[in-house]
Amino acid sequence: MTARILDGKRIAAACREEIRTQVAQRVAAGVRPPGLAVVLVGGEEASEVYVNAKRRDCQEVGFHSRVERLPATISQVELEGRVAALNAAADIDGVLVQLPLPPHIDADRITDQIDPAKDVDGFHPYNIGRLALRRPALPPCTSKGVMVLLDSTGIECRGATATVIGASNHVGRPMALELLRVGCTVEVAHKFTKDAAASARRADILISAVGKPGLITADWIKPGAIVIDIGITRGAAGRLHGDVAFAEAVEVAGWITPVPGGVGPMTRAALMLNTLQAANEIAQGR
């Protein structure tokens, strides 16, 4: 068996094209384009790369974008003030504070300061709670992007057994909630799980979000399973690695995401989808 590739780049490009069409229709109807503000604290290189990619995505789909670069020495109170100003900005529908933040900043407090209606990252407790109650508003982007990938396979998720490796607040937990929402039987394996491999082998849908290169080998994969690799690590030579040992996994899985080019582009596409949704709902006075 050779797995079919879930091409995140291609699917994300199709998402952006649809968003661009909807934005053009908004503008033609006399409605301003959606606005996304990204707050970058300090000059961390990886964060700069992500922020620049998000800005290019905004330009492609016709969004108004604003990047606020703030010094790493900014105080908690000052940063909260900047978030409050963006919450009140009439031309901004989405507010995203790029993580990680400097150690002296309480990141949870900053997340809590973002207006849930503009929380396009989907990390505010209100939005996580809505997802847990199966009433999603603005869900986290990575898990939302993965659900779009799964939908593209045409395979019915309802009734499938799904295993998520990793239980982080930003990825693993919301991913499990998304899968529960669509009717999967979900197992979550984490650092305290005694036999993560056994849990993985039961999965029709196997999702790894750990950040440990080569963790998922072929003997962890149920033949024909959908394998989604969220974990990403940059090696010493600058090469990107996923959690899945791709060369051997592709011989067992039914579908598989590459790294890079799988989940990453879909996370960015989901951010654009969330921003458009937020803009539509704000325009409707919700």
Task: Tag the structure with descriptive keywords.
single chain; 286 residues; alpha/beta; Rossmann fold; 6-stranded parallel sheet; 3-stranded parallel sheet; 10 helices; 16% strand
What do these coordinates show?
The chain has 286 residues and is α/β, with parallel strands linked by helices. It folds into two domains: 31-115, Leucine Dehydrogenase, chain A, domain 1 (Rossmann fold), CATH 3.40.50; 141-264, NAD(P)-binding Rossmann-like Domain (Rossmann fold), CATH 3.40.50. Helix content is 42%, strand content 16%. The chain is built from ten helices and eleven strands. The strands form three sheets. It has a six-stranded parallel β-sheet with strand order 1-11-8-7-5-6. The termini are far apart. The model has no long low-confidence stretch (mean pLDDT 96).
